[in-house]
Amino acid sequence: MPREAGPAKMIQAILVFNNHGKPRLVRFYQRFPEEIQQQIVRETFHLVLKRDDNICNFLEGGSLIGGADYKLIYRHYATLYFVFCVDSSESELGILDLIQVFVETLDKCFENVCELDLIFHMDKVHYILQEVVMGGMVLETNMNEIVAQIEAQNRLEKSEGGLSAAPARAVSAVKNINLPEIPRNINIGDLNIKVPNLSQFV
Amino acid sequence: MALKMVKGSIDRMFDKNLQDLVRGIRNHKEDEAKYISQCIDEIKQELKQDNIAVKANAVCKLTYLQMLGYDISWAAFNIIEVMSASKFTFKRVGYLAASQCFHEGTDVIMLTTNQIRKDLSSPSQYDTGVALTGLSCFVTPDLARDLANDIMTLMSHTKPYIRKKAVLIMYKVFLKYPESLRPAFPRLKEKLEDPDPGVQSAAVNVICELARRNPKNYLSLAPLFFKLMTSSTNNWVLIKIIKLFGALTPLEPRLGKKLIEPLTNLIHSTSAMSLLYECVNTVIAVLISLSSGMPNHSASIQLCVQKLRILIEDSDQNLKYLGLLAMSKILKTHPKSVQSHKDLILQCLDDKDESIRLRALDLLYGMVSKKNLMEIVKKLMTHVDKAEGTTYRDELLTKIIDICSQSNYQHITNFEWYISILVELTRLEGTRHGHLIAAQMLDVAIRVKAIRKFAVSQMSALLDSAHLVASSTQRNGICEVLYAAAWICGEFSEHLQEPQQTLEAMLRPKVTTLPGHIQAVYVQNVVKLYASILQQKEQAADTEAAQEVTQLLVERLPQFVQSADLEVQERASCILQLVKHVQKLQAKGVPVAEEVSALFAGELNPVAPKAQKKVPVPEGLDLDAWINEPPSDSESEDEKPKAIFHEEEPRHTRRRQPEEDEEELARRREARKQEQANNPFYIKSSPSPQKRYQDTPGVEHIPVVQIDLSVPLKVPGMPMSDQYVKLEEQRRHRQRMEKDKKRKKKEKGKRRHSSLPTESDEDIAPAQRVDIVTEEMPENALPSDEDDKDPNDPYRALDIDLDKPLADSEKLPVQKHRNAEAVKSPEKESVPTVEKKSKKPKKKEKKPKEREREKKKKDKKGEDLDFWLSTTPPPAAVPVPAPSTEELAVSTVTLVKDEGEGLRREELEDEDDNMDHDQERKSSRHKKKKHRKEKEERPRDKKKAKRKQAAPLENGAAEEEEPIPIPTNGQGPVTAADVISSSQPMSSYCLLAENSYIKVTYDIQASLQKDSQVTVSVILENQSNSFLKNMELNVLDSLNTKMARPEGSTVHDGVPVPFQLPPGVSNEAQFVFTIQSIVMAQKLKGTLSFIAKDDEGATHEKLDFRLHFSCSSYLITTPCYSDAFAKLLESGDLNMNSIKVDGISMSFQNLLAKICFHHHFSVVERVDSCASMYSRSIQGHHVCLLVKKGESSVSVDGKCSDATLLSSLLEEMKTTLAQC
């Protein structure tokens, strides 16, 4: 396994991909060349795909990342898998809750998040993640605080006129017309996920 | 310009944004790659435009493509451009792209330093935040070094949002630039008590992670963490702290004792499963570290096991999994408590979840005993049969082998059973682990001599049915076992029942389809077999049969000679010739068996992998000594062994000659043998196999081989392992009966015990024994089992003693207009971060009281861990050297009080109360301590006051200056923190010049980074009522030493002092000098000119001075270990010189402290009144000193790589010493 020398991180990688293995968010906290990253995503996808929804959310020995000290901890929401690769310094249940915090934050920020939001706003998802995890370390677990910071930054961006100026918007609105219809299917509110002791963390 | 802008935004109308790109890719499913490459071309065009918005948009799209696996490093420079945009929107895009694709190999990354620094100090918190986030992903050692100071400043930012990010990123900085850890640590520690929970949590996070890697350096923080643990309500923080305690307890068992109670309380009270789980984990760690000596910890174990059982029984698979995980930790030390839950764990083997099954398997590994091994393996074997999917089945297979072979097969009582299990495993289809089974077969057959006969019979059967094993390509992995089978049959052919049949089996044409390395073994072992058959036949005088065998070989071997595998071919043709030769001899009627079997005479003994490492170097053998005379240089002098210091006896030189007389050696060898013979613990060479065979019970139970042909795919002639289970039962039963009989006999006449027929592990005598250590380890093998630490561990660099006071050289590099590497007066160490504003009044002027208070605070912080940990006062807790009666009284009172507390403590159940007591007790003792301290402090204060006015060379408090290793035994616990506190007010500034207006003191500091540069720190103190301004300092440069002047100025221009001095104020300015040679002291003439302005008007004043560059100022305190020091001295490259000073009354310790402080040495080793010291010059000269104190004299012997430097240094030292 070509693994570059360098210190390992507490959270080594955060991957989000859909039921078909299409990456929606790829965030490595350790350097891997792009093709290796893709390989890791594929392999991780095949590992979690095999697993039923009613078995445990921990996977050992993701052969590509880390080694014995590392675990894959994942959650499956509707069409998306959220996978964290962490070392033993992280509490397993804690990370499960963190995933939940992350997804709930996404849900708040996108107002009923669905896979399409992640597809078209990968940058925004990254910005949200950056408020939760920084450089492989848990930064904030309080959802209200995370949302507040994100909204503040969005306001700042709006005051600057945003990334795409108004004319570009108009054009893309026209382009929008022949967009294939994709149902929104991530809806956290409706999903019934058992989260042990989430309230303890929020 | 405006036009360009307009044009830019019109262009933009036709640019794709991220959404368009995504949409486009989705609409081009068939030719995605083509579409994307088209988009990349567009992006390249966009990046060429001047409009930053266009660029940002392009970079944003690139980030998306990166996720899809496209390398975007080619755009690194554009990314940096976007990072430096002024708008937050764009900046954020740039930093995101950078965090996704920058790494240490990105060459343009060094261009970002200034941009990041700018963003870090941006007034907008989100600019700062985005820079911190980005940096956390791509920080390099260079960036870490350059920005460490800026980030450290941010740790005290007003916004908690920035603080928490800054705290968190420090961990990355430490990893990349370990030197920053010590200077930054005090502030990091402060953040543990930050009012904002997020910042606090970040600090806990970082410190926990640091401590996890190098726990011993963080033990002193335990009290603080304990406080946090009992006060925090944030579960994230609690989990981290509890995890940290788990890492700390192995180092300090007393800490564990203290933890048990609050942790068990938490276990009982918390509703958060994650917290409960971590508590259980840490309690387990504590129990492991205590392992003995705690009377009631079985209750804690019971509690843990109970809780874990609840987790395992939970319907939530995650909890089940974690419960099993934690259970396996308990298992290591308290197997008994886990073994009682065997039912539960075996049940988990049937779980539908593979992760859980694997965990349960892990547990089984530790749960087996001699008693239940067979039963458990039997259960596993049924799982092997059931298991669908090869991965899990392979896992089972390896587990079975692991379980059986663990710690030298200690749980196996019957190796026949084990061999049968291995043989049964060969029937697994498609396993990848054939080689594992083969290795086990070989291992057992070689090491368990008693089993060879049985093993050989099994292996020959296996060879016979090799067609089954090797038939389909699918079973390729398993054919590895044939390798083992062939070797065993060949090597131990004397045990074969029907060697000829086996020989034929090995020569079948089918064999040539096996992999080459197996065929090679076949060929080799065919000859071994042949040799033994020959011998048999010749002994039976059956020449015909012998010739037949030879003929068989001559016929069959050619099929191997044609093999494509070189190894097989070579062996076969060689052997074929040999056999043909034998055939000729046989034809002549010559007996050949002896000679043929001589080819394979002797036994191959197993050798443990670490054997060589463990052979101690015999006495009298010097591996580094030359065997022959070393090649001599032209100068014969060099060959002479040199004394380290001239008057020392040449004791350390190699006197031992390799050619010590033979007699002596023989005598020693004999003595050693004698000693070994008498040593009951020395394992002698093993007794003969025959003897052991008879010794071992159970061999007579070798089962009658049952042939069960009805079962398909069963290797015929193989006994089923199940039989052994029954047989083993019987055997044990018989053993037990015998034992009972014996016991009964013994008990006759005695009082009758109610002896329960319990069967402990020890009672089961194994049928065969593995005899391993005996033969595989060389004579005199050392029993150590240490394995070296991995030298590549990135965390090793962070193994840094944090309690040591900061040295001058450890400051973080600060960006400054002048001399970046400047080192300041030690007082500033405590505030090493902020760029000093020149107006800021000097710290030195702090009132003594204030300083005192600070010292107290430090003392408290460094509060002895021992003290905190000791729940009952240790007998000699507060020993004060030669206490005055008063002090004695105080300490007694403390002790009494402690005892009182201790008693009360036991009565109290409530844990909170206990905490209060702890604190109360602590503070009460503190008060006492304070009193004592203050008393001691007073005389010191006077000295300090004096020093402030007078030249520093005369201060008598030198012992405070530099930490030297002071032997602490008998003086009570002296912590490093004490040293820090007492070293606070030191100063090495000496007077440069003085007149009625101004007093100038200076100090010269060198730094390792610059080998020809020193910094002169000048403190200017306005002593008049005038306002001093326009100060300028100039010196007359010498050839060797030059002052660094601003660009464009000549040598005649002075360097302006960057501040003005109001009346009574002092400030410090720094000037850089470049030096070529440092071996001689230098004096430079100079002038300070300034304008003094008062009510009456302004005058232009001048003050002349002579700046003395002593050689000592070029030295840098560098610690040196004694072995490195000895090596240095023995290297023989050093010049030698010495001085002697009479009439010295100062204590040796103070003397050393003085040398350390004024001449920048560190003590390497001190023995009585003799000490070795070391220092290094900025140009890399090593300077070694041996300081000896006589009655009233001190002699200093020095060695240095430069003779001139040494004599200059010694001269300087003489002056210092003369003042003592």
TrEMBL record, chain A:
Q: Topologically, how does it sit relative to the membrane? A: Peripheral membrane protein
Stretches that traverse the bilayer = none
Q: Which UniProt keywords apply?
A: Cytoplasmic vesicle, Golgi apparatus, Membrane, Protein transport, Transport
AP complex mu/sigma subunit domain location, by residue? 10-156
- InterPro entries named among the record's database cross-references: AP_complex_ssu, AP_mu_sigma_su, APS3, Clathrin_sm-chain_CS, Longin-like_dom_sf
Question: Does Transport show up as a keyword for this record?
Answer: yes
Statement: the UniProt record of this protein carries the keyword Membrane: yes
Query: Which Gene3D superfamilies does its entry note?
Result: 3.30.450.60
Q: Which SUPFAM superfamilies match?
A: SNARE-like
**Annotated localization:** Cytoplasmic vesicle membrane; Golgi apparatus
Q: What does this protein do?
A: Part of the AP-3 complex, an adaptor-related complex which is not clathrin-associated. The complex is associated with the Golgi region as well as more peripheral structures. It facilitates the budding of vesicles from the Golgi membrane and may be directly involved in trafficking to lysosomes. In concert with the BLOC-1 complex, AP-3 is required to target cargos into vesicles assembled at cell bodies for delivery into neurites and nerve terminals.
| Protein family membership | Belongs to the adaptor complexes small subunit family.
Question: Could you tell me what this protein is called?
Answer: AP-3 complex subunit sigma-2
- Per the UniProt record, the source organism is Microtus ochrogaster (Prairie vole)
> Which gene name does the record give?
LOC101993251
Automatic annotation (TrEMBL), chain B:
Q: Which residues belong to any copy of the AP-3 complex subunit delta domain?
A: 660-803
Entry's localization field = Endomembrane system
What domain of life?
Eukaryota
* Region (Disordered), start-end ranges: 623-696, 722-975
Compositional bias of kind Basic and acidic residues: 639-651, 665-675, 791-836, 896-907
Membrane topology of this protein: Peripheral membrane protein
Cross-referenced InterPro entries: AP3_complex_dsu, AP3D_dom_metazoa, ARM-like, ARM-type_fold, Clathrin/coatomer_adapt-like_N, Mu_AP3
Look up keyword Membrane and say if it applies.
yes
**Keyword annotations from UniProtKB, A to Z:** Membrane, Protein transport, Repeat, Transport
Classify the main location: membrane
Biased region (Acidic residues) positions are 773-790
- Compositional bias per record (Pro residues), positions renumbered to this chain: 872-882
Biased region (Basic residues) positions are 732-754, 837-846, 923-933
The similarity comment for this entry is: Belongs to the adaptor complexes large subunit family.
According to UniProt, the name of this protein is AP-3 complex subunit delta-1 isoform X3
Q: Which organism is it from?
A: Microtus ochrogaster (Prairie vole)
Gene transcribed to yield this protein: Ap3d1
